[in-house]
Amino acid sequence: MNFRDLGGVSGKLGHVARGRVFRTAQLSKVDESSAEHLARTLRIARYIDFRADFEIMRDGEPRPLLARGVHWVRNPFDLSDEIFSSLNRPAASDWQELYLRGLRRFRPEIAQAIRHIASADAPLVFGCWAGKDRTGMVAALLLSLLGVEDEVVAEDFAKTTELLAAFKGSFDILWKFEPQAAEEIFRCYSVASPGTMLGFLTAARAEFGSIQAALALDQSTVDTLRSRYLVDRDEADHSGA
Questions:
Q1: Do 8 and 28 touch, CB atoms closer than 8 A?
Q2: Counting C-beta atoms within 10 Å of the first and last residue's C-beta, which end of the chain has fewer, N or C?
Q3: What is the phi/psi pair of residue 61, to 5°?
Q4: Closest CA to 159 of 28, 53, 57, 22
Q5: pLDDT, tens digit, for every residue of 141-187?
Q6: Domain ranges, ordered by start, for the chain
Q7: Residue 142 · residue 118 · CB < 8 Å
Q8: 3-state percent breakdown (helix, strand, coil) of the chain, nearest 5
Q9: Above 90 in pLDDT, residue 88?
């Protein structure tokens, strides 16, 4: 669910290489064939998992990946808070505000995720439960650090809307007490509005000065990240990035 390569886009610093970093929804329920594809064909060696303990208890460990030697890195953080939990039908602006509050609350956890990504010496994947919010934030911050323009970052975020559409049944807990409102509620939770991510990145820079400052990342980490995931035009053309 909601799996894709973050590579293939260009920014002011270079091209993000394909086949090195992927984003996803939770991978505990992948079948044996999918696990084989991830580990053997895509050569994914590390799975950075943002799910909290209660989510792991509910959905289980990613055993098919573990059986194939994929290193499971727990990096949990849970965005939900009292303000968001009080909303019955969150709008795009509510998601944007949740992301900004989440950045304030979980700067160390998000920075640690970026460090894990920077330190990888093989392809990796990162994700949360649906691959939309926590994953969307980390993907956006990562691409921004790699010099990708906000509009392109927002386009990647927006792909989630279509990629979640086929998995509506997985969200049925949201409308357990309002089955007649299933379509409306699913739309409120599954739509990834480009404006939400654009607003979040703009607000983060306004508050912290830069994405690097927001995460308190040292320059060596940022340099390593760029060395690992950016390629020049000739290399991108050769690799298909």
A1: no
A2: N
A3: -85, 160
A4: 22
A5: 999 999 999 999 999 999 999 999 999 999 998 888 899 999 999 99
A6: 4-230
A7: no
A8: 55, 10, 35
A9: no
